[in-house]
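Schema walkthrough. Field components (list of strings):
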Amino acid sequence: MRKIATENGLKKGPWSEEEDLKLIQYVQTHGPGHWRTLPKKAGLQRCGKSCRLRWTNYLRPGIKRGRFSFEEEETIIQLHSVMGNKWSAIAARLPGRTDNEIKNYWNTHIRKRLLQNGIDPVTHTPQVNFLDLSSVLNSARVDPSTFPNLQTLVNPQVLKLVTILSSLSKNENRELFLNNYLNTMNPYQNHQNSNFTCAPSNLTSTLLNPRHDLMHANDVQNIPENSVNMNDDTSEDIFMRACLTDDCFTIPSYSNQSTAQTSENSSFQPSCTENNIPSSQQFNYESVLSSSMSSTTPLVSSSRFINDITAEHDRESYYGSMFNLDIQKSIY
DNA sequence: AACCCCATCAACCGCCACAGA
DNA sequence: TTCTGTGGCGGTTGATGGGGT
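Field assembly_structure (string):
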């Protein structure tokens, strides 16, 4: 670990057993807090911040050490897909795990594995260039022999949607179309008061994210009967009329926000803030979180099975099959 | 055996939000 | 309203150890 260094008489680097003992004894007697004055009172040559970190990340009772379980990994992935790099918020849902530990685990294990499986760890979407996809699908439409089984591989509604999107000239328009598309698909959600909201730009990710498709499966049951039926052949026309009206493209704030938040160069924005998004642009993520927040049951149905898998390569193959499975579910 | 490369993760750093004076 | 102290957060660093050559 780090070299032991001193600065202003303060020690840096790894903690010794003796230091740990002093800190534990002091906190057990006086409780945590007042970290600035704690080192002097506890007889430690450390800065208060170092003491606090050592306590919260290592010495605090209830800290769970060791390998992350599959359930924990799934929870991290799903929460990260919603929260982004809000490690403390994620840690709050994983008893015994610290934000630092989760962050490290994400960067060294999960992130790598997602990349290996073709999943963008930032957006949680398959790493497929959207325009390339539409190009492929368009060509397939012109020449069915290219993909003779295309209709059995790709949901016709998805094909329609991609075709429409590819016909829109500006990325901004695509974004707007997608947002309106989804708003129309599930208007019920958009009118719910929610403490947990998401910027509309992330709906694009939601649409293209098989994991989100899976996670929203329960929501489908909540869609009121008068919402648009996507199995209706005329739904595309309905959507085109609904989404391509002038009104859609003349709301400056909407447009600007979408454009800004979907910049490819921008990192995954916390995406889900609680109060800074107008209600008309909010998206209800309650159901996304419900599985992990309100229940101790595994987050995906296959969790029971994966408890028995321990080897790293098994985890990798599990992730591969998990995402493949999700993709299939999402397109059928 | 020696060296190099890389993954891991504890610890640090800089910044920010918030509460209280 | 401003200042200051405190604690929290996310990003980064670097020591360590293991595997490969």
